[in-house]
Backbone:
């Protein structure tokens, strides 16, 4: 293998350090015996046990997870529908308005989105009596609203690169439009749907600003709890929580890449077999 | 008009049983008229070509046949049935798309079998049909591949097999050979013609490539700016084009404006200032004397000699200004004393070159044109 020049090697190490030093220090200090975050007091796993005894953190994590799962799923369905309408339905009346409304939250400061969503809920409570108090449902609506924007953007950009004629070909071969959607459009854009869902999930999971405007008492999501705790000083159990999340993400990424490489290898083998069959 | 040809846009009922009947169809996109009052009939089992440069409306006409566009006015009948308001998925028509439009997430076999799932047929029957199609396009060993694992020629054949699998009454082909290289194109042309002959399905091919249209089709409609300029057999369109436009669109041609001196029954004498001579031309119809008179002749119909020929009509003297050797023939550009240039195609029939006759730069040559080879057009330029 070609050896890297000392300069490139240094830059590479510095680059990785810049990206991963904070995460590594988080993981290292999660095994710290000392209560003080910056002083090393020997190896220990106590903070992990303490973490699992802390129902406040566990409740917040469960709430965040439920919120992210449901809002990402609903946002993906709505966002995919909006994306298909914007790209495939031609210049229908109100198209520009729809596209503008959908992308506005992308450029609007989050604080404004948060305040206006809160205002909406307050006015609704006054006029139609719902929501009487803010809680899971208001959080869910707010999260769906802003994460749908991201899904729609991902779907429209993918859909506009796909040749319309493959959908026309399916129509031509006898499939009515809904079957074309099921057989052709959705499978072809499925990677975009998946990445849209992941994006929506991630954004919902770590949102603080909009969440703090739309939640009610007793509905603290994990990022809000962490935020609140850190203001009182970083405690090692937060480090332990962070390390666990990093661990879960790392395992997820590794597993998915293993699955993808396996599929590719199997596909390669099939091609080889097909090629061998020709001779 | 000197050459016999239908008036643009007029119905041309040469299609026998009128399997497909396009009646005065117009398609407008906003203020742009893509197809302008087109009428034509296509017979059952015919291989018909729509030929024209890009933007002439040929693809729009094809998409109206497929049902992707609705005519702004006029009617389309297929097998006697009015196609107005019938969705693409209810038409007995299949189309082979220019981009092939293969489903990227399906194997070759599933691509070909996709249209069959709407037919009421047993699974085994469907599998048999797919196998037969794979056989027809010689892709048996590729059934389990995905489209991106195929070469351009193989994809083209999958697209053809998929469009044929449902045994449509009519197959539409949009630039079927456009994405293939020259060698493959020649081979595929004959394959398509063979498959058409074997299946007996009516084919309508859209192309901008005149060679493709000439070799494939039994009849060609030459389109320009949304109208049909001429509808005829390839031979008639080439040898007897109905207008100056068609003559110059199909093949290459020498065009010179002239003035009628006199006509005696079946011959006319035309003074052509650019050639510096009076040409004698065979008349194929009466001249009206209106509009600009154009004399046209194909480069390969000109006979070129180094000695002055005896007793030949329409002999012109010139100098070889340029020539290109193409192997099977040579292309000459002959400069006349009037400074006009005439294109001449001379076939190389003798191996090693016809040394006695092969002219080279600066040689004096004599051109002679048979009166029957001269085409006369009176349409305005």
Residues:
């Amino acid at each position: 293998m070609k050896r890297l020049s000392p300069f490139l090697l240094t830059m590479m190490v510095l680059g990785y350090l810049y990206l991963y030093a904070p995460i590594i220090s988080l993981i290292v200090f999660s095994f710290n015996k000392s209560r003080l975050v910056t002083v090393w007091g020997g190896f220990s796993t106590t903070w992990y046990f303490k973490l699992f005894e802390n129902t406040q953190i566990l409740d917040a994590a469960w709430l965040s997870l439920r919120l992210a799962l449901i809002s990402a799923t609903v946002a993906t369905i709505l966002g995919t529908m909006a994306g298909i309408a914007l790209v495939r339905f031609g210049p229908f009346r109100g198209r520009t308005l729809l596209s503008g409304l959908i992308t506005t939250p992308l450029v609007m400061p989050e604080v404004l989105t948060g305040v206006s969503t809160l205002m909406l809920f307050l006015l609704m409570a006054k006029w139609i009596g719902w929501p009487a108090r803010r809680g899971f449902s208001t959080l869910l609506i707010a999260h769906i609203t802003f994460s749908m924007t991201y899904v729609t953007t991902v779907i429209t950009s993918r859909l506009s690169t796909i040749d319309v004629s493959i959908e026309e070909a399916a129509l031509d071969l006898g499939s009515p439009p809904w079957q074309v959607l099921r057989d052709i459009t959705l499978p072809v854009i499925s990677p975009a749907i998946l990445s849209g869902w992941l994006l929506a999930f991630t954004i919902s999971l770590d949102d603080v600003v909009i969440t703090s405007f739309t939640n009610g008492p007793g509905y603290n999501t994990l990022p809000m709890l962490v935020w609140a705790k850190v203001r009182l000083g970083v405690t090692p159990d937060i480090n332990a929580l962070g390390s666990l999340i990093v661990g879960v993400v790392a395992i997820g990424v590794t597993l998915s890449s293993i699955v993808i490489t396996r599929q590719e290898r199997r596909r390669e083998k099939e091609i080889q077999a097909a090629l061998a069959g020709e001779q | 008009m000197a050459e016999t040809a239908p008036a643009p846009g007029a119905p041309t009922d040469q299609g026998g049983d009128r399997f497909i009947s396009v009646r005065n169809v117009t398609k407008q996109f906003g203020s742009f008229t893509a197809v302008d009052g087109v009428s034509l009939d296509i017979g059952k089992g015919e291989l018909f070509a729509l030929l024209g440069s890009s933007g002439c409306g040929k693809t729009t006409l094809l998409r109206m046949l497929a049902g992707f566009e609705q005519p702004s006015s006029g009617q389309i009948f297929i097998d006697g049935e009015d196609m107005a308001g019938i969705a693409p998925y209810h038409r007995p028509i299949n189309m082979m798309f220019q981009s092939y439009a293969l489903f990227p997430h399906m194997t070759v076999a599933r691509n070909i079998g996709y249209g069959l799932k709407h037919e009421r047929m047993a699974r085994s029957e469907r599998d048999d049909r797919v196998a037969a199609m794979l056989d027809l396009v010689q892709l048996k060993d590729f059934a389990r591949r995905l489209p991106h694992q195929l070469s351009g020629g193989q994809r083209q054949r999958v697209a053809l097999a998929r469009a044929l699998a449902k045994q449509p009454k009519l197959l539409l082909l949009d630039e079927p050979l456009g994405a293939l290289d020259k060698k493959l194109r020649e081979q595929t042309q004959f394959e398509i013609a063979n498959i058409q002959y074997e299946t007996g399905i009516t084919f309508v091919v859209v192309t901008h490539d005149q060679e493709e249209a000439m070799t494939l089709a039994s009849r060609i409609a030459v389109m320009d700016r949304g109208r049909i300029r001429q509808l005829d057999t390839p031979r008639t369109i080439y040898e007897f084009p109905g207008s100056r436009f068609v003559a110059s669109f199909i093949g290459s041609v020498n065009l010179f404006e002239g003035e009628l001196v006199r006509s005696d029954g079946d011959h006319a004498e035309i003074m052509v200032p650019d050639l510096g001579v009076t040409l004698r031309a065979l008349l194929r119809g009466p001249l009206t004397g209106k509009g600009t008179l154009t004399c046209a002749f194909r480069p390969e119909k000109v006979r070129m000699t180094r000695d002055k020929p005896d007793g030949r009509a329409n002999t012109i003297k010139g100098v070889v200004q340029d020539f290109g050797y193409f192997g099977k023939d040579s292309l000459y550009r002959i400069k006349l004393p009037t400074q006009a240039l005439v294109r001449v195609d001379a076939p190389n029939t003798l191996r090693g070159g016809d040394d006695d006759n092969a002219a080279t730069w600066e040689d004096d040559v004599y051109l002679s044109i048979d009166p029957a080879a001269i085409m006369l057009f009176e349409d305005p330029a």
Summary: Chain B touches chain A through 29 residues (CB under 8 Å). Chain B has two domains: 20-247, 252-377. Chain B has a mean pLDDT of 87. The first strand of chain B starts at residue 20 and ends at 29.
